[in-house]
Amino acid sequence: MGLVGIATEKILSSFSVFLFLTIILLAVARRISTSVLLFSLQSAIITAEVLATGFQEKLASAYLVGILIFVIKVVAIPRAFFVLTKRLKTVHDVKASTTPSQSVFVVAVMIYLSYAAVHSYGGAVRAPGDSLAAAIALILTGAFLMVSRKKALMQVLGLLVMENGIFLAALLTTFGMPLVIEIGIFFDILMGLLLMGIFMFRISDTFEHLDVSKLRRLRG
Amino acid sequence: MKIMVDILQLLLLILGAPLVRGIIARFKARLQKRRGASIWRPYVELFKLLRKEDLTPPTSSAVFRLAPVLLFGCTVCVAAFIPVAHVSALLGSRGDFFLLVYLLGLGRFSLSLGALDGGSAFGGMGASREALISSLAEVPFLMGLVALAILSSRADITGMVAWTLHQNIFNISTVHILAFTSLAMVVLAETGRMPVDNPTTHLELTMIHEGMLLEYSGPSLALIEWASAIKLHAMLALLIALFGPWGMAAGGSGWGLATALLLYCAKVTVLMVLLSVIESAAAKLRMYLVPDFLGVASAVSALAVIFTMWVKR
Amino acid sequence: MGPIEMAFAYLLSVLGVFVPAILIVSRGARARRLAITLILTAGVAGGLVAVSSFLWQTTSLLDLSWATPFPFSFAVDRLSAFFLLLVCAVAVPVTIFASPYFDLHYSEQQRRWTWAFFSLFLLSMIVVVTASTGFAFLAGWELMTLVSAALILIEGDSPERRHNVFVYLLMMHVGAAAVAGCFFLFLPYSHSLDFGMIRAAGAAMPGGIRAAVFLSAFVGFGAKAGLIPLHLWLPRAHPIAPSPVSALMSGIMLKTAVYGFVRFAFDFLGGGPWWSGYVVLVVAAFTGLLGILYAIAEHDLKRLLAYSSVENIGIVFLGLGTSLIFLAHHSLLGAGLALVGALLHAFNHAFFKSLLFLGAGAISSSTHTVDLNELGGLQRRMPVTGAAVLIGCCSIAGLPLFNGFVSEWLIFRSFLAGSSLVDAKAGIILPLMVGILALIGGLAAACFVKAFGVAFLGRPRSAEAEHAQEAPLGMRVGLWMLGAGCICIGILPGLLLRPLVSLVQVLVPGAGVPEETLSIAYIIPWIAAIVLGTSALAALLRPRARMARTWACGLPGLTSRMQYTSTVFSKPIRSVFAQVYRPDRKVEQLPTDQPYFPASIAYQSVRTTSYERVLYRPFVELFISLAHRLRRLQTGNIQIYLLYIFLALVSLLTFLRFQR
Amino acid sequence: MIPVLGAGFILLFRNPRFATRAALLVGALEVLALGAVIWQVHLQGELQEGRYLRADALSAFFLMSIAFVSGIVLIYSSGYLRHTGEGRFSSPRWFYALVFMFLFTMISVCLSANLGLLWIMMEGTTLASALLVGFYNTEGAIEAGWKYLIVCTVGIAFALFGTIVLYLAAVKAGMSPASGLDWISLMNAAPGMALDPHLVKLAFVFVIVGYGTKIGFVPMHSWLPDAHAEAPTPISALLSAVLLNCAMYALMRYDVIVSRTVGPAFSHTLLLIFGVLSMVVAGLLILVQRNLKRLLAYSSIEHMGIIAIGLGLGGPLGLLGALLHTFNHSAAKSLLFFGAGNVRHNMGTLRIDGIQGISRTMPQTSAALVVGGLAIVGLPPFSLFISEFAILSEAFAQAHYLVAALFLIVLSVVFGGFAYHLFRMLCGKPGRRPENARLIPSEYISMGIAALCVLYFGVRIPHFFNVLLHEAMAVLR
Would the CB atoms of C631 and D285 count as touching at under 8 Å? Predict the structure, then answer.
């Protein structure tokens, strides 16, 4: 294999480190805009990874998928977020229910866990192990974000991070799924975001805030 | 032949009943240093009452009139269970002691209803007290008989009597003693004698049996009195037959019967003396001590039943 | 499809389909009369089916499995035939009684629904006693509860009535769960709920399962039968039902429970584990004693009757328990005897208890109350009804010449026969039971002297009682059919004894009864002859009676307030058994300063023993508090919800780890 | 495809009355189309449309219940919507449009031949119904909608991961990536081909958590009571009567594959655990509910638990019971929800202590409630008795005594709860007069159909239905 091949290898293996960085930064980020930027960065990295894999495996579809991701996750969604934040006129604090240090600690634990998981299921992986670990870490972190952040926006963001993780896992373990399915999934995500936008508008209209932890009328 | 004997025994129990009463009264009088009335007095009273007219309260119903006759019928039927001088009775061999006890119950049931029908306070009072005592008295009554039935492994009266007859008088078991004790106490309670009830009182605080008869008059009253006399006599005869049958005639010979009859009279006399002594000696128990009295009886009879296990085998 | 099957199909279709259909489709008296006649014909048909199938031992009746998702078929062996006869024989008079009763009490709308449910109720009970698959049995069983509850609710819905019905439904449902359980416990061995298969599997099952089946059957059917302490619903549900319905509930529905228990304990299991008999015996003894004691203390006639149902069920189960003990000792004669006694008593109780409830109905429809302290002197005003009720009272008090005595006598004899057992335990316990049953019988006599004496005799205690009218013809006919039944069985018990013996011989192979116990069939007519003959003679001795005022201790006149009331009547017994009632007495005397000449004395005494408080509340509260704790988990906070999901996931993953 | 077109078609009408008529028309067409599909399946076993659509007996069975419920729901809502005003996304036409989108996604869940597509459609159901849940735009509605959206999306995300893992297993086992997600090929391949058992188990864990969220297994059930309580009544009926079943269908597909690969023990244990857990928790929570629709929601959870138990037991009776129960539960539950809807209209509240004596004021509605209640607690002669009877007998026959005992106990508890609440609402002295006590025709028809169905299936199972049922069971074996 040529130089490029080796380059891709390197890229593939080193990307995971960047991913970890984005995760940790997400954990400490205080402002929504920062987190959104981090997310788009993350997506950009993933795009690169997709392209790299596509190059390595000579898959035409992978390129298409990569472009899709780039368009949707790196460009469209962050834009949407900024628009939303402006429209909703909310304070830019993410309103974490955990202090940054705690978050970082938790994220670190999660990264460790993901590694452990990868090694226990090691046989399953054909891509470099640590990037699969990164994928799982993404899922867990997304989950963590959803649980710990009170802002509706941040919950959506966490959801997206999880999505990223799942997608990454899909990509790395298999060559990605059949194209139609992929597109379908993207479509779903878009629709989902649209809906969540609508609901966020409604929430801020009715409750004058976006703090979902205050939505506790229905219980029992 | 046999049937004749049975009928004779029955008649003896029925017709001799007033005499028994008279004699007991006489004994009591003597014990109380009085001359006392003639022993034939009860017969005279019966005839007097039977000739009188019958009065019923305006509010009462047919039940009031029917009660005495039904009581009389039941008592006579009970008497037909009990062998006197010959080891047989009209119903003795077929009907068992459960029937006997429950026939008494039927009589009591009808009398209580009659008493309630009178519409006065005394009737209800007598009935309610009678209800308590009789319901408690049934337990030792049946249990005592059960003990004997288990020993003799027969349930019919004559069968039990016949079995006892064949035992030697000297190896009477503890069961017999216990059973006798309980049954004797039951007889006191059932026939409304001291210390459970005072047959001669008409004070509303103490009346039990008498309270129920208060509304009755004339023939009805006669029937009731006669019935209770028969009951008393039958009970005594039952005790004798169960616990002292020795000397009873088993065969059909006339001499045997005659001697048996004489013996029976002797035994009855003894019992009557005992009864009158008790009646003169004991004071009437307070109403709420009667349950204790009967409780003792029940306990004794229960012991009797339990002891059968060891006596039997 | 022979005539018997035809008759049975007719019965089912009429009760299940036509009558309700008619009543729902068309309103109006003619339709209703048609419906009632149909019910009557159905009842007669049922009786015929029962008798003929008893004689010719037809087993399979009808198989509807082609229609239903699970096997749903009917069969009649002698046991079922006996109970089918019981149902129909009681149902016909009750129906006759009910038609004027409902006309008197209900509006048009209510009548239609009542009759529809009435026939469904009969149907459900017939289904229960003739079902030959578990599915059919359970379906009928649940239906029985529902329909009877509906019948109670038609009368009206005051809060306490609602609460009582709720208690009834809940306890019945739990009981039904237990019954279902003891059917299903057979499944691993029988692979089907067909009675035949279950019977076959019964012997082969391991001891533990047998014990479990026995216990759950005892609990399930005991709850329906009203064994103490599972009787809670009974004195609540029976009094508030319309009288004909309470007659059916008390007379028949409780017997279906007896049927179920016999079916399981004797037919399927062939006798439970060795201790089973003793358990049943003890529970039954408590039930009988406490039942009758509570009954005496009541002054509401229907509550009194309800409690006496508890007592009679106790007697029936005394018989069953004895029979189980005999079975455990392989002494088949005794077992047969006790079983015959129990079954006969169930039959008798069906008669006299429904008779008495109908009597209460007659009373309430002419005086608008069943409170004994308001009644009195009814015998003069409604003599026909009174006589019938008197028969019922004598029977239930277990007096000779009436049917109640025969069955109690058989049970007495089975206790006596217990002394022949080698096992010392049984040999002592069974004879001692004679004492218990004797006490029960004595108290029952006292109780019904009170009931009849206070309600019908003496002078009226209220204006309603003063102006009471004789019940209409239909009611009297219904009452007297039952009364005739009581006397007939009471004087000629042979009519039922022989068939019962043959039934028992089929049910428990090799069982029978000692010959001498059948002598009761010959002796009782003699006794009847002697008693009645002598009474007739004695009656001849008497001239006609003259009216004369009751002696009032010289007072100007006797008022009804001087009579004993029901409360006073039972006072001695209540104070003797005070520790059973734990009464809470209050005596208020005015004025307080002069104790000997009170202006007024107010007295009240409340029974404070409450099974509900001691046994049932704790369970319910446990569940409720548990629920409240769970409710707290549902905090409205979405983040917590997400957390739950992740926890679930994580725990499953760890489960995976360890599972590997 | 009818619904989608229908949705667009309806959006054209501004006037609610036209919209309603159009909706009924489209609904009729849709039901007919479904009927045709089912009939085809009945005739020629399986239908395969292209690579992504196929229908076998199992899907046909679920399609049937969708057709049934959606039919009566449309009829009911035609009357129900008579007092909803115009609003953004909340006018009759939007309502119907969304309803048809919702139906479309659910139908295609049952029709999709590809697990990926299945997932997409499941997510679709969430998206389509979220707006419907928030239809009323009240605080409660929005809150419920948001929770529904977020919780279900997260859950579904896990399901996606599970799907991917399964796909990975397939691919590693050497299946072509194209067919690696077809459940049919997976099912057929499963026994023979060496799918990595461990990966498959992992996949199933994720899937059961994911789709379990949609089904409403405890502890993922948290969204369900809110959504059911706040949504408009027809939607509540659709959610609990159809959506839960569809999720259950998806789970069944995986269950078949997994149990064919690694043996039934694993998946069935999980199903039993979740089933019993849901049943117990929901059954207890029923006791302490204060809102009628929340009560019904919890009872849906409990019934999903029952179905899960039936599946987990497997065996002929268990499967029969489970499948039958899905259908019966839909019928009874929609009946109950309709009743609740009427109560809300007339009494203006759903708080149980605010409702009294409706048996006097609105006899027909309360009759419906009674029938529904008796059916839902599983009493004869109603259909749920049959299915629960089947499941119980399976449990005992397999000597799962613990499960069986819990089952019986919970049934009694639930009975107590329902009886208690129903008594309080039906009896007593009526509070305020309802506006229109009598049912309008649409309500009459829909409730009548539901009640009759519940009653009829309690007495016998029609032949055609029975055949379909057994074919479906054959698929699940």
Answer: yes
C567 touching B (Cβ < 8 Å): no
Subunits touching A (CB < 8 Å, at least 3 pairs)? C, D
The pLDDT tens digits of the residues spanning D30-87 come to 888 888 888 888 888 788 877 788 888 899 999 999 999 999 998 998 888 776 655 5
Q: Which of B65, B66, B138, B301 to mutate to test the interface with C (most CBs of C within 10 A)?
A: B138
pLDDT at B206: 75
**Chain A touched by D398 (CB under 8 Å):** no
Scan for tokens 């899709």, then name that residue: A68
CA distance A196 to C10: 65
Cis peptide before B245 (omega within 30 of 0): no
C20: helix, coil or strand?
helix
Instruction: Locate the domains of chain D by residue range.
Output: 269-477
Per-residue pLDDT, averaged over D179-200, amounts to 76
Whether D146 sits inside 8 A of A174 (CB atoms) is: no
- pLDDT tens, position by position, for chain A (220 residues)? 566 667 666 666 677 788 888 888 888 888 888 888 889 998 988 888 888 877 777 777 778 888 888 888 888 888 888 888 888 776 667 777 778 888 888 888 888 878 777 766 655 444 556 677 788 888 888 888 888 888 888 888 888 998 888 888 887 777 667 777 788 888 888 888 888 888 888 888 888 888 888 888 877 7
Q: Map out the domains of chain B as residue ranges.
A: 2-312
Alpha-carbon distance values, D290 to A218, C416, D142, D350 (Å): 12, 59, 20, 8
Cα of C204 vs its chain's centroid, Å: 33
Chains touching chain C through at least 3 C-beta pairs below 8 angstroms are A, B, D
Are C225 and C317 in contact, with CB atoms under 8 Å apart?
Answer: yes
Pick the residue from chain D with its C-alpha nearest to A181.
D116
The Cβ-side half-sphere exposure at A123, using a 13 Å CA radius, reads 8
Question: Is C454:C363 a contact under the CB 8 Å cutoff?
Answer: no
Enter the ipTM: 0.89
- Taking the CA of residue C307 and the nearest CA in chain D, the distance in Å comes to 25
Contact map slice: C 629-658 vs B, CB within 8 A: none
Q: Which two tokens stand for residue C330?
A: 């392989």
Residue C333 to chain B, least CA–CA distance (Å): 16
Nearest to A192 among D153, D199, D226 (CB): D153
Q: Is A180 an interface residue toward D (CB < 8 Å)?
A: yes
SS3 (DSSP) at B156? strand
Q: Which chains touch B (3 or more CB pairs under 8 A)?
A: C
Where do the H-state alpha helices sit in chain B?
2-31, 41-51, 62-79, 97-117, 121-152, 157-166, 174-190, 209-213, 218-243, 254-281, 290-312
Spell out the long-range contacts of D180-183 with Cβ–Cβ below 8 A and sequence spacing 24 or more.
D180/A174, D181/A177, D181/A178, D181/A181, D181/D114, D181/D115, D181/D116, D181/D117, D182/D51, D182/D113, D182/D114, D182/D115, D183/D113, D183/D114, D183/D115, D183/D118, D183/D253, D183/D256, D183/D257
Q: How far is CA C93 from each of CA C88, C152, C251, C480, C636, rounded to the nearest angstrom?
A: 9, 20, 12, 8, 61
- Report the first-to-last Cα separation within chain A, whole angstroms: 63
Beta carbons of C70 and D223 less than 8 Å apart: no
Domain edges within chain C: 583-609, 615-659
Nearest CA in chain D to C632: D285
DSSP-assigned beta bridge partners for residue C607 = C583
Q: A151 - beta bridge partners?
A: A211
β-strand pairing of D53-55 with D47-49: antiparallel
pTM over 0.90: yes
Beta bridge partners of C586: C604
Q: What is the pLDDT of residues C369-389, one digit of tens each?
A: 899 988 988 998 999 999 999
CA separation for the pair C377, C379 (Å, rounded): 6
